[in-house]
Amino acid sequence: MQITTLVLMVLLPTLLGFLIILLGREGLSKKATCLIGVITTGITLIGSLILFGKSFILSEVLPKWNFTWIELNQKPIQFGFELQPLNVLMLIIVSTVSFLVHLYSYGYMKGDERFSVFYSYLALFTFSMLGLVISPNLLQIYIFWELVGVCSFLLVGFWYFKTEAKRAAKKAFIVTRIGDIGFFIAISLVFKEIGSFELKDLQIAIEQGSISSGMITLIAILLFVGAIGKSGQFPLHTWLPDAMEGPTPVSALIHAATMVAAGVFLVANTFWLFEAAPIALDVVAYVGGFTAIFAATIGIAQTDIKRILAYSTVSQLGYMMLALGSVGYIAGVFHLMTHAFFKALLFLAAGAVMIIFHHEQDIRKMGGLWKKNRVLTGLFLVGCLAITGIPPFSGFFSKDEILLAVYQDGRIGLLIVAIIAAFFTAFYMFRLFFTVFTGNTKQKGELGKVPRAMTFPMIVLALLSIVAGLVEVPTNSLSSWLMKGLAKPITTHESSIFIPVIAVLVSLLGMGLAYLIYGSKRISAKRITGTIPWLHQLLVRKYYIDELYRYLVIIPLKGIGWLLQIFDRVIIGGLVRLGGGIMQILGRMGTALQNGQAQTYALISVFGFVILIVSLLAGRILK
Amino acid sequence: MNLTSYLALAAILFCIGLYGVITKRNAVMVLFSIELMLNAVNINLVAFAKYGMVPNISGQVFTLFTIAIAAAEAAVGIAILLALYRNKGTAEADKYNSMKG
Amino acid sequence: MNISGELIAFFILSVSAIGGAVFMMNLTRVMHMALALAFTFFSIAGVFILLDAPFLAVTQILIYTGAVSILMIFGIMLTKHKDEENPPSFDIKKLWSLIGVGAFFAVVLWIIYQSPFFTSEETVTDFSVKMLGKSIFQQYMIPFEVTSILLLVALIGAAVLAKREEKRK
User: Fold this and answer.
1) Do residues C133 and C87 both lie within one domain?
2) Residue C51 near residue B49 (C-beta atoms within 8 A)
3) C30 contacts in B (CB within 8 Å)?
4) Of A89, A168, A530, C96, which cross-links A245 as Cys (Cβ 3.0–4.6 Å)?
5) Binary contact (A596, B98; C-beta < 8 A)
């Protein structure tokens, strides 16, 4: 099959699915809607798998394909696709998770009235995300980037009748917009510098040194600002936990596995740009490292099951950024992949937990699930172990790669930060696990049932979470494959034995502490928070970042808005009213002239005649 | 004697007539004023016939026609006025405001 | 400017024409106004004589001073009038009319005095009644006939209009 056909096979079904569901939302039953969604994403998944097979197993170099969309000053602006290993890998991740989430949503969203709307949004999102990951130029990336942003907005605000959901949707949209402005400026700068949006052209220009290094750094940092917004890095992370107001499948698909990884993907996709700008790499590394530990500490004190996972996502994305910033291209991308699987698994499992507890999200009101649902417990445990980085689960390998990359890069401080963050990760994940699954059931009455449509996707993701590490270890096949997409090879990291050992030990320590506090209850959690209440409060309130933004940004902006509104009301509105008033007065005068008396008309004609003659004469005299 | 004097005389008469047309409340007076304006025009025609660039009898012929038409106009005007007077009960021009929108 | 007989005659005639017109504007009784207008028409007939148009002058007297004035007087008599116009009050409409007409007058006068009129004094044209008759019945035959039809139409139209409308069933 032709590559173009294959790519169309990947892209078109979801778009078609979106259109069909959108147009047929009156007539289609829920089952049919779900079927359309699953089939279209299934075709997409098959297409992606074929591409993956061609690229990964048969080691084919897949061609890129372009067509000129418009020309600006003889500078063609192109559309097309590119199938470097990174793009293909992203295709696989997106289509797999999307397929499974489509399936899962049938169980989760069954009772919702706007079921088909939900599916149409999902399909649109999948299409946009697929388009994003195969874009060969910055403009196309930007278009799809905004499209996924819109879908995220729509889906976070899906339950728009809830005030929190509405606010969260707006917040998600506006906060990411801040990052997008940076991205947009970066794109504009690139076009100004090289007159093209093509990544290839930019790469060549950098290799030839036709862009000054300061400009490269500026562009790289601005691109990273876009990534910060999308991937929920500090200081623009605040939208991501709030985005958990959306339905849980959405959280799994968009806010864990795919869209938030778009920022990481963007940095990875323009990695040569960052390599050419060491300062930008530093920024990436430090922001990533800081976010990793920052979000992990917040995660400790949260009580909402989805928010804990959200902060975990922020933290893990920080890890990926840290890896990329430490020239750990492979490590970052590898972790992106494994994280997509296990975090999607965790979110879907959390959704199942919420179904069982009748949409309760507070973990303090849960407990004892182990006795009720062994399968779910097992699945959740797999996710926890994977994110904690216990061998042989996939998280172990990717996290190990990251730590190794940081170590090799020589930033020992960041390495320590990453290890401490790993400790916190283990702690909050197992805090969550022990609180929810062990102990006694605190909720009375009948517990909910998990539909089979929800269990199956979780099992698949659990399997992937277990085995995904095997693509890299021990054969290094992922890294050698990804290397092919890079212009110049990156030095691979020599494995070192003590880093994984330390990482695992630290994770086990975190697990153990969590067990002591929340599992066997040997140590009272209350006493700990009692000794340092201010720290606990600080963590619960997420370091007061939201409050800080509120007082530093939102209230001043509202003040300015209020002033501008007054300006608008009084001055602009006044001018408009003045204009209207003058016209009205003129109209009244006109009406008064129309009094039906021929003599008045004659008088007006005389005036008109005089004016006419005078103006004619004036024209002649002035000439 | 020159043309300008006659034209000025005609202009003065014309303007008096125009003023009367606009301001007089009595409809008969309006008709009077119109006649006055027509006469002012006649003076112009005859003056041009004698003192124009090409002195020509045509000006006088035109004046004759104008007089004939003015006479017809006066007759019809008076007739309309009488009809209006019968219908509206008044001869005051500012009471005729049925053209008002 | 040389004082000639023509100038004196023109002066007297124009003063009486303008005076008649002004009187017409300012008199209070309608019948007096009609008489003032007749006087103005008469003066204009004099102006026509000055302009070498004796036939027109006679026509003017016959039609205007005679027929039209009498017609007007009939019109006055057939309609009821509050004989006195309202006492001259300061009226915003009158002021505007004065301004408008004044501006018009100023413009026209300015044009008249600005325009260079060439008067060919040399050619002496024959303005006799004979020439006038020739011109009307040769050159302007068709318009003459049309005018006669117009007069007929006006006659019938005026009669129809002025006739008391019969009540329709």
Assistant:
1) no
2) yes
3) 26, 28-29
4) A168
5) yes
Centre a 10 Å sphere on the Cβ of residue C93 and count the other Cβ atoms it contains.
Answer: 14
CATH 1.10.287.3510 for domain B3-89: yes
Residue C113 counted as domain residue = no
CB pairs under 8 A between A and C: 21
Is C107 domain-assigned?
no
CA distance B11 to chain C (A): 7
Cis check: omega of the bond before C87, within 30 degrees of 0: no
pLDDT digits (tens, 9 = 90+) for A520-577: 777 777 777 777 777 777 777 777 777 888 788 888 888 999 999 998 888 889 999 9
**Alpha-carbon gap: A591 to the closest alpha carbon of chain B (Å):** 9
Integer Cα distance of A210 and A204 in angstroms: 9
A61 vs C: CB within 8 A: no
- Chain A, 418-477: which have a CB under 8 Å from a chain C CB? none
**Residue A371's pLDDT is what?**
78
pLDDT of residue C144: 92
Distance CA B34, CA B70 (A): 9
Interface test with A, best of B84, B94, B98 (most A CBs within 10 A): B94
Residues of A in contact with C104 (CB under 8 A): 606, 609-610
What is the rounded CA–CA span in Å between residue A471 and residue A57? Answer: 11
Can you give the residue ranges of every domain in chain A?
326-523
Nearest CA in chain C to A607: C100
A84-102 residue pLDDT tens: 888 888 888 889 989 988 8
Backbone angles phi, psi at A65, to 5 degrees: -145, 135
* Structural domain boundaries in chain B: 3-89
- Asked if residue C136 and residue C74 are part of one domain, the reply reads no
Contact between chains at C24 and B20 (C-beta distance less than 8 A): yes
